[in-house]
Amino acid sequence: MAIEAILRAGRAAIDELHRRLAERGHPDVRPAHGYAFQAIGADGTTASALGERLNVTKQAAGQMVDELTRLGYVTREPDPADGRRRLVQLTPRGVDCLRASADVFEEIVAEWRARGDDVDAAVAALTGLTDLYGGALRPIW
């Protein structure tokens, strides 16, 4: 039952995040997109490096970049340091989505705290679970 509770809580938080993101103008973003936004970062990256950071194939990373480009969250531009490469960068829409995600997560944690639950103890316990088994953040397709 403990594992089921952990998985259900994680899923509920992600579902709520995406419900609120839709309300804030990002109805088309999926959970995997958030991982990509984090991996792209403020300085941008190449599709190959994105694949490495997400632990997915170059093809999967390329497909993700194509989708995010179509949705207006990223651009592909020539890399000023190496004209043979294309740099993937967040657009203002991508940055807005990333900021909105951070705001929503803060709201969710504040609501959790308002219930009177010991959020810090829960986070410490979950961190212990991560320490025990590892837990790199990467998308689950």
Automatic annotation (TrEMBL):
GO terms for biological process: response to stress. It comes from the Bacteria. It holds the Pfam family MarR_2. Keywords: DNA-binding. Residues 1-131 form the HTH marR-type domain. One of its GO terms (molecular function) is DNA-binding transcription factor activity. Gene3D superfamilies: Winged helix-like DNA-binding domain superfamily/Winged helix DNA-binding domain (1.10.10.10). InterPro entries: HTH_MarR-typ, MarR/SlyA-like, WH-like_DNA-bd_sf, WH_DNA-bd_sf. SMART domains: HTH_MARR. PROSITE patterns: HTH_MARR_2 (PS50995). This is Winged helix DNA-binding protein. It comes from Solirubrobacter pauli.
